[in-house]
């Protein structure tokens, strides 16, 4: 075997070894998520936007973005209050439920999370202007309020918080 062929095999072996080590480290980083404190009201920015509709329902995405740090949400937003422009609570029925084993979701700069609110397409629409709710978090004072984009018809249901905004 000539010298240049041996050098080529040696270079390929080094690249393969380094690639395997990098993949192993990436796997370990994913297996050990960031440990952070529960999200409080000042730790996240919350917005709502229309997402999609189908099968007689509209879906609204509640998006949680970092206010600068890293924190954790787990479960379903609770104690939802929909209000009109004057701040008066509106009578919108809620179907509640909470997953038994909700996963912790890390919110950090560049790592948003989201939850979906399902409303009916048909029915009496309420003039919602604001949504207030308790974050799915163990932090005290974790109640937030955000603008709501359009009138809705109930009843509504809410999903658990999930990573990303898809």
From TrEMBL:
Q: Which domain of life is it from?
A: Bacteria
Q: Domain DUF4232, which positions?
A: 39-137
The membrane-spanning stretches of this chain are none
Cross-referenced PROSITE patterns, in alphabetical order? TAT
Which positions carry the signal peptide feature in this UniProt record? 1-31
Instruction: Provide the alphabetized UniProt keywords.
Output: Signal
> Which Pfam families has this protein been placed in?
DUF4232 (PF14016)
The UniProt entry, under InterPro entries, shows: DUF4232, TAT_signal
Query: Under which name does UniProt file this protein?
Result: DUF4232 domain-containing protein
User: From which organism does this entry originate?
Assistant: Allokutzneria oryzae
